[in-house]
Structure formats: C-alpha cells, structure tokens
Design brief:
Elements: H1 8-19, H2 25-36, H3 46-57, H4 63-74
Length: 80
C-alpha cells in the first residue's frame, strides 16, 4: 500500500488547473489524479502511471504538467 500523498500545495495547484479553461485535457487528467491522491492510501493506477511517465519524458508538456506527473509517478505501485 502507498503511504505517500499529494502535498497540500500541489493539490491546490491541481484544483486551480481543473477550474482553468486554458488547462489542456491531459493537464486536467493529471490534475484530477493528483487531487484524488491528496487523501491517504491512494496510489497511481497503471494507466495513469503510463501517461505520467510519457509526460515526464516529453519536451512538449508544461512545467506544471511535469510537476503533476512527477508526483503521480512517485506515488505509483513500485511492484509494477
């Protein structure tokens, strides 16, 4: 079980990103996952882990998206 959770600061940024019409679809998807992991005992699912990994490897995503993706990858199931 994962004992990590999204920080309050990152969760706040994620909430703002979800409300911003300028946030991309992938940004909203990452933000929603970050926000859901602000609660304890949540871990990144396999599909979202893959998306987050691709975001981190690509030069085409914003720093905010990379920040969300990094948080998600750090909360993933290490056994995968």
């Amino acid at each position: 079980m994962n004992t990590k959770q999204s920080s309050a600061k990152l969760a706040s940024e994620a909430a703002k990103a979800l409300q911003d019409d300028k946030t991309s679809a992938i940004g909203k998807q990452l933000a929603a996952s970050v926000l859901s992991q602000a609660a304890k005992n949540k871990e990144t699912g396999k599909e979202m882990e893959g998306i987050a990994s691709k975001v981190l490897k690509s030069p085409h995503y914003s720093e905010q998206n990379k920040s969300f993706a990094g948080s998600l990858v750090s909360q993933s199931n290490k056994a995968r």
